[in-house]
Amino acid sequence: MTHLWDRLAEAKSRLAPVQSKYRVVFEDPSRPDDCAAILVPDPNFLAAALEGGILPPIETYLRDQNVPDGQPKEHPYAEPIGPMTEEEAVEFLIKKDISPRIWRDYNGNRCILRIVPVEAVPTDRSFRNAWKINQNTPEMEMVA
Amino acid sequence: MSTIAASNLSDGSNAVGTDQIVATSPRAACGVDQMSTQTILYSFNISSIVDDGAGMTDFNFTTSMASADYLWIKSLDADNAPSYIAIATEYQDPRSASRAACQACSAHSFIQRTDQHNVDCIAIGDLA
Fold it and tell me: ipTM of the predicted structure?
């Protein structure tokens, strides 16, 4: 099996980047004073996810989180999975790039993670370090 | 994809081993515009970035590095704030094999951060 890095290099040479129409807004419950963070999917990653046959299963990334540094990891040589929809790719990124204590283990009442359209993220970054997820409205919006 | 197999590259007088070139080539690269909504300008081996606040960006790798011991080079084009510099930080979790961070800080105060137009980072080291 070709290394994932080589598959990504080959994919980048032939696939056009795809800008995601989603952002993932999240807060870390263990750091209540921190502002909301915003995950931005990478256009080349999204192109590879939509194409299929390049990225490994998400389970390999999750298992590799428990592998100590310097030990062989599973995801670089895992069998690639098929094409994903954009929504599936965003879910893949949530599991891969956001801590499980946020997307899996949190049991509180506060909404700490939302997938929002990119238009819902304010373009005016005034008071950026005070942004929190709006708890009072069901709409996907944020308040400073 | 074609392959060129060679053990050395030479200009006629000096030679360098291709193993050194492979070992020191960038494994991940990304450029980010932090203004407005943070935007990825170019990238390779990046799965996502995380906007962590003013001047702060996390970079997640698609293929992990072998360990957290790799070279992480940061730079920024501080066209609107010449005294600003890019530094690596551990403002969230410590740097890991799968993630690294960069923040645009004032050269006079590392807690004073401002969004910048061009923040560029590359990772050099062994892959997992």
Answer: 0.94
